[in-house]
Design a protein that fits this description.
The protein is mainly beta. It has one domain. About 5% of the residues lie in helices and about 25% in strands. It has two helices and five strands. Strands 1-3-4-2-5 form a five-stranded antiparallel sheet, with no helix packed on it. The longest helix is centred in the C-terminal third of the chain and has 6 residues. The radius of gyration is 16 Å and the shape is globular.
Length: about 130
C-alpha cells in the first residue's frame, strides 16, 4: 500500500515526528498503518527500526468499524543501505522507499536519484526519465 500513498491519504497529518536524524539517510521506507491513536508513538512490530511517524489532527476520524486511524510510519529494515551500504540495496531501493528530504506533513514524498542509489540507469536515460537529485 505504501507505494501508492497519495495526498488524499494524508489530509489530516499535522506533524512528522523523527526518532533519529534523517539528513544522512538516502532513503526511508514509508507505510500507512492502522493505529489506535492520532498522536502517540505507535508500537513497532516490523523487523528493523522505526525512524518516524505522523501525527494526525483532531479532525481525523477513526474507522467506523475498528476505531483505528490510518497513519504513516517511517522505518528501515536491517538489510537497508544505511546498515549495509554494499548490500542488496547498494543501488536501487525498496518499492516503498522515498527520499526523506522530500517529506512533509500531507506530502507523500518521492524517489530521487539519491534514494535510488546513484545516477539514472541507461534505460532511464534512453527513455528520458529523470529523478530529482535532492
Amino acid at each position: 500500500m505504501s507505494a501508492s500513498i497519495t495526498p488524499d491519504d494524508l489530509t489530516h497529518e499535522i506533524e512528522l515526528v523523527w526518532l533519529e536524524d534523517i539528513q544522512d539517510l538516502d532513503y526511508i521506507r514509508q507505510c500507512l498503518d492502522r493505529l489506535p491513536t492520532r498522536r502517540r508513538k505507535p508500537a513497532y512490530y516490523r523487523n528493523g527500526r522505526m525512524v518516524g511517524y505522523a501525527i494526525l489532527g483532531s479532525t481525523a476520524k477513526g474507522s467506523p468499524i475498528s476505531g483505528t486511524f490510518l497513519r504513516r510510519v517511517f522505518w528501515l529494515a536491517p538489510h537497508d543501505r544505511d546498515q549495509h551500504p554494499h548490500g542488496f540495496y547498494s543501488t536501487g531501493a525498496p518499492v516503498e522507499a522515498i527520499d526523506p528530504r522530500t517529506l512533509a506533513p500531507r506530502v507523500p514524498g518521492r524517489k530521487t536519484e539519491r534514494s535510488e542509489g546513484g545516477p539514472p540507469s541507461p534505460a532511464m536515460v534512453e527513455l528520458g526519465i529523470t529523478l530529482d537529485k535532492a
